Automatic annotation (TrEMBL):
Similarity comment text for this entry: Belongs to the fasciclin-like AGP family.
Gene Ontology biological process terms, A to Z: root development; shoot system development
Ranges of biased composition (kind: Basic and acidic residues): 383-397
Keywords recorded for this protein, A-Z: Cell membrane, Glycoprotein, GPI-anchor, Lipoprotein, Membrane, Proteoglycan, Repeat, Signal, Transmembrane, Transmembrane helix
Membrane topology of the entry: Lipid-anchor; GPI-anchor
Main subcellular localisation: membrane
Protein name: FAS1 domain-containing protein
Membrane-crossing segments per the record: 428-445
Limits of the FAS1 domain: 74-222, 234-373
Family matches, as Pfam families: Fasciclin
Highest rank taxon of the organism: Eukaryota
Species this chain originates from: Populus tomentosa (Chinese white poplar)
Subcellular location: Cell membrane
Length: 446
């Protein structure tokens, strides 16, 4: 019997109207998408209730789960390799050459890892850090190759690009790696500019996150004359870069105080600079002039981190950061926080926001910030937020700290805005599928 002929049983003999009930009207509305049971498959008796449409219920639950699920493809090559001590040397030089940060930024990557024994033969060549970076970047393929894919290569051979080729400094065929599936289940690797020689073979898989990152051990380093060619260190003049990118006032302070030498000495090993823009520095000058010479140096060094930190790295490594001013008991640190795409630096005295990127060329990255970073070692900490006073009582202002809330008030506004964003993004993402599920369940079981 078709669903639209079903009538709800009368509750009593007095009310025996044939007018369709609310439930029947809802069933009619859904009859276009609900499966219609036949007498042969689902016999209907006078005393039975309508069977529950399980396929639609299952679909509704699946849609809810799908809508409320997010996929994150982030990976950290340093943490993954830290679980394998026999690759500690390889892991160390990925960090020293800043390749680790580049690997973490990429969405799809394959790392041909070398154990400590294989790395010893490479280190014995006494290559410079910049040349070693080229050699190791030849071991990073810009495509995903898991164990299964290695044995399913079309025609048994494939040539793929590497991060060395992606730098633009690899001429001709250099920067490409040949992968060949040999007889007997072995897979060999060789640099394309090495006269067709296959130097290494696949040993085992260390980690695979399809199709994000694959870390495969190979037997020995790949040989490439171009990758091993002497490479000069890049010339990165911090103060010159700052002067040409809207940070001239900050650059002038670095030079006048002598703090620029510390910045220049840390460039090769990795450096992150937070630059207050010219209008910000000009507005801060009355306070800056009241500092002693050592205090001025400490304040300026407080705007540098002695490692390279891309914006993505800052977003994924929230927490306390040491600075160029950190020295023993003088912590001179601040906390990095992010809310979505907004990254802030909290110093216990104030909160600054990264407003743009001046330069990002590893090992140097320079960001613009909207405030001068004030360390608690030099400036009075902002007062803690108090609980709201009971109704009828007046709030008493803090006497000594009455001049501090200029920064705090801006931070409070930012926090309020972030709260709105969280409500609009996070809770709405949960409420939408929940509302959909509730509507479906209402129609099914009302």
């Amino acid at each position: 019997m078709p669903l639209w002929h079903i009538r709800k049983r009368p509750k009593n003999k007095i009310n025996n109207s044939t007018t369709p009930s609310k439930s029947l009207l809802k069933i009619k509305a859904l009859s276009c998408c609900l499966p219609i049971p036949t007498p042969q498959s689902t016999p209907l008796h006078h005393s039975t209730t309508m069977p529950r449409p399980l396929p639609l219920l299952t679909l509704a639950i699946s849609l809810v789960l799908l809508a409320s699920t997010t996929t994150v493809n982030a990976h950290n090559i340093t943490r993954i390799l830290a679980k394998h001590p026999q690759f500690s040397t390889f892991n160390h030089y990925l960090t020293v050459t800043h390749l680790a940060a580049e690997i973490n930024r990429r969405q799809t990557i394959t790392v041909l890892a070398l154990d400590n024994a294989a790395m010893s033969s490479l280190i014995s060549k006494q290559l410079s850090v910049y040349t070693l970076r080229n050699v190791l970047s030849l071991h990073v393929l810009v495509d995903y190759f898991g164990t299964r894919k290695l044995h399913q290569i079309t025609n048994g051979t494939e040539v793929t690009a590497t991060m060395f080729q992606a730098t633009g400094s690899a001429p001709g065929a250099s920067g490409y790696v040949n992968i060949t599936d040999l007889n007997g289940g072995k897979v060999a690797f060789g640099a394309e500019d090495n006269d067709g020689k296959l130097d290494a073979v696949y040993v085992k898989s260390l980690e695979e996150i399809p199709y994000n990152i694959s870390i495969l051990q190979i037997s020995q380093p790949l040989n490439s004359a171009e990758a091993e060619a002497p490479t000069a260190a890049p010339t990165l003049n911090v103060t010159a870069i700052l002067s040409n990118q809207g940070c001239k006032a900050f650059s002038d302070l670095l030079i006048a105080s002598g703090a620029h030498t510390t910045f220049e000495e840390n460039v090769d090993g990795g450096l992150t600079v937070f630059c207050p823009t010219d209008p910000v520095i000009n507005g801060f000058m009355p306070k800056y002039k009241n500092l002693t010479a050592p205090q001025k140096v400490s304040l300026l060094l407080y705007h540098g981190i002695p490692i390279y930190q891309s914006l993505q790295m800052l977003k994924t490594s929230n927490g306390i950061m040491n600075t160029l001013a950190t020295n023993g008991a003088n912590k001179y640190d601040f906390t990095v926080q992010n809310d979505g795409e907004v990254v802030t630096l909290e110093t216990k005295v104030m909160t600054a926001t990264i407003t743009g990127t001046v330069k990002d060329e590893e090992p140097l990255v320079v960001y613009k910030v909207n405030k001068v970073l004030l360390p608690r070692e030099l400036f009075k900490a902002a007062p803690e937020k108090k609980a709201p006073a009971p109704k009828g009582e007046k709030e008493v202002a803090d006497g000594p700290n009455a001049d501090a809330p200029s920064d705090e008030s801006n931070d409070q506004t930012a926090d309020n805005d972030n709260g709105v964003n969280k409500m609009g993004g996070g809770r709405l993402a949960v409420l939408a599928p929940s509302f959909f599920f509730g509507v479906v369940m209402f129609f099914l079981f009302e």
